[in-house]
Amino acid sequence: MSWEKLLSALGDKLSGNVPYIAMKADQPTGQQPMNLGDIEEQTEYYLTLQAGERKTRGMLTGILGGVLGVGAIFLGGMDLYNSRYAWAIGMFFVAFSIFLLPFLWETLRPLPLPILFNRRTREVYFEQNGVFYHCPWDDIAAVAYQFQLVGPYTGAMRSAALEVLMHQLKRPERQVLVSLGLPMGKDLELQAAFWEYLRAYMNNGPWFDEQGNHSESDKFVRSQLSINYKGSKNLGDEWRNLKKLHKESGGRNYLRLSDLVMLFGALILHPNELIREYTYKVAKRRSHSSWPQVVRERLDPNGPTERLIDLERNSGALEL
User: Fold this and answer.
1) Given phi > 0 = left and psi -120 to 50 = alpha, else beta, which region is 226?
2) What is the CA radius of gyration of the chain?
3) Rounded CA gap, 159 and 240, in Å?
4) Most confident stretch, 11-20, 71-80, 224-233, 254-263
5) Which long-range contacts link 2-7 to residues 24+ away (Cβ below 8 Å)?
6) What is the rounded distance in angstroms from the CA atom of residue 40 to the CA atom of residue 225?
7) Which 3 state secondary structure label does DSSP give 114?
8) What's the pTM?
């Protein structure tokens, strides 16, 4: 896993001159650590990044159950109030079906696994279409490169990707570049800051301060993780905003049409977001068992700490 191989792969991929920053696990970039919102879970032993369909799983159940389902419940409640019991039962059944069917479809289908950084064994894992890739953290080769996406409606959009070089388990000659998050709307400095966050976690974590140095307090890490978007928080945020405006104005002329529209929109979408997040939580919990056995045992706080790359040298000691 060398920079030369990484930059060669990048050259084959882009075939042109692009601004880039090559990175290593033990070399700082000069940026302060920053979470860009792609972190799914961070514990004392491992950190995961959302990948692929994980970003959209639960959305269908949220839309159908949170909008159409809630609408059916409202209509059923109206029928119940007007003593139309048969119609009410029918609407409640429709609401239940609208939620249950997409919920089962989204939770029972296999969920693509996240990109996983294991602090205990100092490794990075990735799985795609049933093929497992990994690389040792201490020898990791990473690169951030900047480019532009041009569209007829959006114009030129700034983008920067952050990728690491990994190889297939037991097939080191098969290598892939794995993207750590979406590139849209980011630049080299932001991706370097996110790399510093990962470096701080793997080298000095699990908790660290604004400079990436080890800390016994999780205050900075929690503040960074709090920026991860959760639609279910919108209603509470809008309500707190109105209370703040009320307090600042002394209760006089503080209501604006835009604030009322935002509050109403958050209220309407609140069931949608709650259902979407719950569906994703169930699907994510079921996906944990999809990791190969060699990974699951290394995620155990009391499990082995041998690196997979070391076990590969003795193929008889490595079994999936």
Assistant:
1) alpha
2) 24
3) 34
4) 71-80
5) 2/141, 3/141, 5/141, 5/165, 5/175, 6/141, 6/142, 6/143, 6/165, 6/177, 7/143
6) 9
7) coil
8) 0.82
